[in-house]
Amino acid sequence: MTTMIGGSNAEAELARLTRWSEWAPAISDGELKARMDKARELMALAGAGALIVNVGPSMRYFTGVSWSPTERLVALIIPASGTPRVVCPVFERGSLEAELKIEADLVLWEEEEDPVEMVCRTLAPGTVLAIDPMLSAGHARQFGERLAGTVEGGPVIDGCRMIKSANELALLQQAKSMTLEVHKAAARILAPGIRASEVIRFIDQAHRALGSSGSYFCAVQFGHATAFPHGLPYDQELEENQLVLIDTGCRIEGYHSDITRTYAFGEVSALEAETWELEKTAQAAAFAAAKPGVPCEDVDAAARAVITKAGLGPDYNLPGLPHRTGHGIGLAIHEPAYLVRGDRTPLAAGMCFSNEPMIVYPDKFGVRLEDHFYMTDEGARWFTQPQVALDKPFT
Fold it and tell me: For the Peptidase M24 domain, which residue ranges apply (predicted)?
């Protein structure tokens, strides 16, 4: 093992971590206004007179409100002109106003009232409503029954969110840089007998020590559990001469990191070492294929071609690559566009993606290397540098 893996403990590593010093600025009021203006441009192209945005990442994108969806209707209404409206239960008004960062009229409803009907009454007769695909099916159906017409709101919302601003890129960079430091610390605490749950707890504490709200998610897998992309439902103990796979991330102002490292704790088999090298080659091929104007699916095809040429797959067959090569990332950890067959979205400056063409040998082991890149006019750029070698997880 290298000095990057093992040799320390959780207490020592946590003592070394301090609050992140280069904090990216929050999204400004001016940027929120620009997002609203862009949405209205795309609404016009879609033939919509208003857009409804469900509570969740997309509503946060436009308003700053960070709530998660529940059964109650909470949403943003963006009309073609005029002041936006926020739909919310009356009893949540105080909490809403504490987070709302835009000027908006409030459509407040009591528990026995019909919020869909209340929203419909605020719309001009004949309004065509663009509906957020994340709106509940029940609420979407009710709007469809009561309005002159509805259209798909995904192209409007995704058309805004897929292209990140310089400020968004800075927030994403901070989140990813912080998580990479946490990965480095986690590798140093590994020792025979340590439980996956201990590592998960440490990673959460380390994210908090750097100033985030903790891990947004964390998967720690040893040995044969690495063959399962999202792990197994029991707590493992690390043994000598096993693969270690750690996948984790945090959020900064809602923007996500999501980084995976797979490395050897001791000596691993020749097949595991060869597969690691193949995984790195596939990840590099995907990155090289990411050029402005290229369809997203071509990036997936580039990684898959490397794996197929090595005699694995083809397609999603195992041993091989069981899932897409990557996903968009921003205020949601998985968001459009996707590096997968069938997604013909052309790559453009400002788009951000994971690059993680995992290779799985069923019930034996898996190798996933995951870093993220963003598009520029010249091509792809890494947020974090990929893993160097099987026994050297960091540069």
Answer: 171-377
212, with CB counted inside 10 A (0-12, 13-18, 19+), is buried
Q: Is residue 15 part of a domain?
A: no
For residue 385, what is the enclosing H or E element?
A: none
Residue 95 lies in a domain: yes
The residue assigned the tokens 């798909």 is 152
| Domain count for the chain | 2
Q: What is the CATH number of the domain that holds 187?
A: 3.90.230.10
Handedness of CA 191, 194, 197, 202 (dihedral sign): negative
- Mark whether 64 and 133 lie in a shared domain: yes
Residue 46: Cβ-neighbour burial (10 angstroms; 0-12, 13-18, 19+): middle
Same domain, 47 and 36: yes
- How far CA 50 is from CA of 43, 47, 61, in Å, comes to 7, 9, 17
Predicted confidence pLDDT, tens digits, the chain (395 residues):
567 999 999 999 999 999 999 999 999 999 999 999 999 999 999 999 999 999 999 999 999 999 999 999 999 999 999 999 999 999 999 999 999 999 999 999 999 999 999 999 999 999 999 999 999 999 999 999 999 999 999 999 999 999 999 999 999 999 999 999 999 999 999 999 999 999 999 999 999 999 999 999 999 999 999 999 999 999 999 999 999 999 999 999 999 999 999 999 999 999 999 999 999 999 999 999 999 999 999 999 999 999 999 999 999 999 999 999 999 999 999 999 999 999 999 999 999 999 999 999 999 999 999 999 999 999 999 999 999 999 999 98
Same domain, yes or no: 232 and 315? yes
Helices 196-209 & 166-188 angle (0-180, nearest 10): 140
Which residues make beta-bridge pairs with 244? 222, 263
Q: How far apart are CA 107 and CA 109, in angstroms?
A: 7
> pTM, whole model, 2 decimals?
0.97
Q: Could you tell me the CATH number of the domain that includes residue 54?
A: 3.40.350.10
Is residue 344 domain-shared with residue 237, that is, in the same domain? yes
- The residue length of the chain stands at 395
Bridge-based pairing of strands 105-109 and 85-89 is parallel
For residues 145 and 235, state if they share a domain: no
Q: Which residues of 83-116 are buried (b: 16+ CB within 10 A; e: fewer)?
A: ebbbbbbeeeeeebeeebebebeebbbeeeeebb
Same domain flag for 294 and 145? no
